[in-house]
Automatic annotation (TrEMBL):
Stored Pfam families: dCMP_cyt_deam_1
Originating species: Nitrosospira briensis
Name of the protein described by the UniProt record: tRNA-specific adenosine deaminase
Cell inner membrane found in the keyword field: no
Role of this protein: Catalyzes the deamination of adenosine to inosine at the wobble position 34 of tRNA(Arg2).
């Protein structure tokens, strides 16, 4: 999760919402990603999707069987779909997302028994650090808007 938090820092430095993600297989990071929908002009360029794309390129396969995805923020509906299609075995996330979280905060797609893939989930790992980054980011943004900066 520390590697994902470092990637969230990179996202923030790039002016993006600070969310980072890594894919791990057999104890090694095989995929990295951070939020970049603004700079990439791509609404799908969430940290999870970027990490899945990187891992898939590195493995030469879109199926990431036996892998764990670590992400600093609870995935949204789109990202949970991508995680399912990649066949991630385990999802570990930090902060809950009360606005778009699809792992229990708003909706829980991961508990939907009718879907054909299920994974282990660990919630709340280094949640305060991840949510703290997000709160600071949005506070700075609100202040900048209020002052016209």
């Amino acid at each position: 999760m520390r590697a994902a938090l470092a990637l969230a820092e990179q996202a923030e430095e790039a002016g993006e919402v600070p969310v980072g993600a890594v894919v791990v297989k057999n104890g090694a990071i095989i995929g990295r990603g951070y939020n970049c929908p603004i700079s990439a002009a791509d609404p799908t360029a969430h940290a999870e999707v970027m990490a899945l794309r990187d891992a898939s390129r590195n493995l030469g396969n879109y199926r990431l069987v036996g892998c764990t995805l670590y992400v600093t923020l609870e995935p949204c509906i789109m990202c949970v779909g991508a995680i399912f299609h990649a066949r991630i075995a385990r999802l570990v996330y930090g902060a809950a997302d009360p606005k778009t979280g699809a792992c229990g905060s708003v909706i829980d797609l991961t508990a939907e028994l009718r879907l054909n893939h299920h994974m282990q989930i660990t919630r709340g790992i280094l949640a305060e650090e991840g949510s703290g980054k997000l709160k600071q980011f949005f506070e700075k943004r609100r202040k900048a808007r209020a002052t016209g900066a």
